[in-house]
Amino acid sequence: MADKTFAARALPHVHDHSSSTGLYVAGFVVFLVIALIAEMLAMKWRSWLPGAESEKTMIGGVKAAVHSFMSHIP
User: Fold this and answer.
1) What confidence tens digit (pLDDT) does each residue in 19-74 have?
2) Regarding predicted confidence, which is higher, 53 or 8?
3) How confident is the model at residue 51, as a pLDDT?
4) Which DSSP string do the residues of 16-50 spell out, in sequence order?
5) Where are the chain's structural domains?
6) What's the CA gap between 35 and 28, in Å, rounded?
7) Between 58-71 and 17-40, two packed helices, what is the crossing angle to 10 degrees?
8) Which of 32, 39, 36, 21 is CA-nearest to residue 62?
9) What backbone phi and psi angles, to 5 degrees, belong to 30?
């Protein structure tokens, strides 16, 4: 009779490129909408988003915020 025991193996943690890209784009859109609304209301939004405090442009601030956000995801 054949031995039918199976050892449980942990699957290696592999980042799926498409899911990382999708998460980056979704975060960028959310932070961009926040920044645009706050800009239209003349609010100081850079202090709300992590990493955006020292950026000069809106897009640069949003990119910095998304990179800070993505660095906290395992």
Assistant:
1) 788 888 999 999 999 999 999 999 988 888 888 888 889 999 999 989 888 888 77
2) 53
3) 83
4) -HHHHHHHHHHHHHHHHHHHHHHHHTT---TTTST
5) 28-71
6) 10
7) 140
8) 32
9) -65, -50
pTM of the entire structure?
0.69
Task: Show Cβ contacts of residue 62 under 8 Å, excluding neighbours closer than 6 positions.
Answer: 28, 31, 32, 35, 49, 52
CA distance 39 to 25: 20
* Cα distances (angstroms) measured from residue 31 to each of 7, 16, 21, 63, 65: 45, 23, 15, 9, 7
